[in-house]
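Session log. Operator J.P. requested a structure for one protein chain; no other inputs attached. Running the standard single-chain path with token output.
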Amino acid sequence: MESITASKEWQRLAELRRAWQDRRISDAFDSDPSRAKTLSAEAGGIFLDISRQRLDGDVLDALFALSRARDFSGALTALWRGEFVNHTEKRPALHMALRGEPGDGIGSEETEKFVVEQRARMRALVERIRSGKRFDHVIHVGIGGSHLGPALALDVLDGANPDSDGPDVHFVSTTDPAPLVRLMKKLPRERTLLTLVSKSFTTAETTLNGETLIDWLADGKERAQVLHEQVIGISANVAAMNEAGIAEENQLCMPEWAGGRYSLWSTVGLPVALRFGMPAFEELLSGARAMDRHFRTAKPHQNLPLLLALVGVWNINFHEAPTHAVIPYSEALAKLPAYLQQLEMESNGKRVDRAGKTVDYRTAPIIWGGVGMNGQHAFFQQLHQGTGWAPLDFILVGGPDHGLKSQRDCMLANGLAQAEALMHGRDESVARNEDGDDELLPYRAFPGNRPSTTMLLDELDARRLGALIAMYEHKVFAQSVIWNLNPFDQFGVELGKKIAKRLEPAVSGGKMPDEPDPATRELLLRLKSKGNGQD
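Structure written below.
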């Protein structure tokens, strides 16, 4: 395949970027009064508005031409059929099958059978635990996608279903001892269920925390009894779960062909079903499935994930945006930026293409963000008046006001206002008329022309959350096609883990490793001299 930067499509976009050098987004609205309608689309309960981006119809057409030149349609078909799109690990990427229905044609018959069987096992397990009413608490032990996805979903569904009668769910991901100790002090052992999630069932953090919690649950009882009655295992390694002593009826399988950042749709979503019931989890799957079908069939100008992907390529590769901010105006979506950090940066945070060659263009940006109302009193100063800039995704939620209409309306008004202020800015003449203090005019001016995308969800529930997450998943895939990357491996997470394993004996007070990095050596000596924080 021809080098992307040498292609005529890339060169056309570079030409259009130069044409936009001195243009303002607000001027584009003046010349095209229908811009807000033509640069928007809707699917899955999500309305997407890209009209505040530094682009127009010519730019979009050129971006669509680039996607065609990169054979986006062929890549999507290969993903859907279950071909080995993860070529480095010789696997398909069948996360869509996890939320699919029989007949969708995603992957093989064997794939479909696995999904149906595991969903049935999960349903039976959930019904048994919820009907038994023994457990008031669940401690969910996992890291990465095994933690971020369920934790995000729990936040959203807790807001939509405040009266849920399921057990409270607590998450343990890192090996920070303080939160673990707090949980063990406050939760009743007899009424606490433990879920251990690890694809390999050998993940260091999960194994360490799991062993500690099993010991805590036992407290005078036989470990075998605790493992049989109070521990659920979720893994692709059935042999390891058996060896650990977890009862067969308390085992659920996750597939090898779905990466951790796509695992929410699998049995890893168990905490959602335990807390809110299996129908709520199935609504989450339904929303994602609707977005899958939209992504597969929608025309380019109406395809939400493709539009998001191409806007990102335009900002990253032609406007040289190093970061991208995700700003939800909803407390329930506070964990979304962290979830998307893993999804985008682990998937497309690559410098080598599918042919093993170092790329000569930017790939995934650094993803960051936070709840909008809090951000307005923190980092928005930089966004409005700083020397740097970042494209933003504003996510606004309509729907129920929970009896507090004024609060809901205030949040929506602020989200709308920030997008408008970033685009228009304010020059000194306006500041003079509004504030009347000439000495402060330079400080009160805003450059504006800072791009953003706005998404409006008609409400926030399991179905819309499923659609929202799937939309971002497909955005990442579409960008990987443009950049010729494999978004389904993550070798970049391995090196640090290997070094940590080598250093752990020294941190624990043992022998210094052979030829440590000089800075690491000094830090290890300091930890040792301070007793490593032990009493």
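Operator note: Residues 109-132 form the longest helix (24 residues).
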